[in-house]
Amino acid sequence: MPELPEVETIRSALTLGSREAPSILERQICSVNLSWERTLATPSREEFERRIQGQRIQGTGRRGKYLILQLSQDFLLVHLRMSGDLSVVPTNKPPAPHDRLLIELEGGWRLAFNDTRKFGRVWLVEDPQEVLAPLGPEPLDEDFTPAKLHEKLHAHKRQLKPLLLDQTFLAGLGNIYTDEALHLARLHPLRKSNSLSAAESRRLWDGIRQVLKEGIRRNGASIDWVYRGGEFQNYFRVYGRTEEPCPVCGTAIARMVVGQRGTHYCPACQLLTLGDEKSPSDE
Predict the structure, then answer these.
(1) Domain tally, the chain
(2) What are the residues whose beta carbons fall under 8 Å from the beta carbon of 70, sequence distance 6 or more?
(3) Catalytic residue IDs
(4) Cα radius of gyration (the chain)
(5) Is residue 279 assigned to a domain?
(6) Which of 141, 185, 195, 277 is deepest in the core (most CB within 10 A)?
(7) What pLDDT score does 275 carry?
(8) Contact (Cβ atoms closer than 8 angstroms) between residue 87 and residue 112
């Protein structure tokens, strides 16, 4: 699933353009073709087609794992989920097999939402908060401080891995970057959140921001057909490296399942405190 760095990479490409395609900014929407009805979360198909036509793309943004296109009247929100991708292609290019939504732009270009597994969703709304309100803070925002993270961690009694994956707790982290951040912070995925000291919370804050910034710098990770052109997978510390040596101590990386998610960690660097191996639950 695309996480914050991958979504930010796609947002940047749509905004700045590339050798293959121009920026989408200031281009008018001429028409739309929705081939998979469930891709559209809201409004109805008829209202969507009526409202979006003629609007101009004025800006792009990101909130957690959501892409945000600011239109002249509305906002178009896109969540890529497991296999979604958003790209700009010439209108004379035939649609790809898994294109679910095609947005024809002026100038001979098309914004194509491709989604093999059909889990991705699109919203056309007047106010992005209609969809984004439940999300937790942005981990790269200036006002997200180590003290705020420590306070939020101690407001729960949950295992770190599931809590960090909870988008209402913190927006943008997924399986890859959570494993990487916990290894940097030297924290076991099963540690209870309210057991962290202020110093440990600071290490986790540093780890989260470091891996996200590095992921963005390297255009995300290319580990399946979803990601395009990223290279962060070449710098993973633990994720997907089961039985390979830890880059810090040389111990074999271990894998376990936490909350139905494959989880990678170093048994030596990320020691589990006695009593923190029980299942997660909120206080």
Answers:
(1) 2
(2) 57, 58, 59, 60, 61
(3) 2-3, 65, 261
(4) 20
(5) no
(6) 185
(7) 54
(8) yes
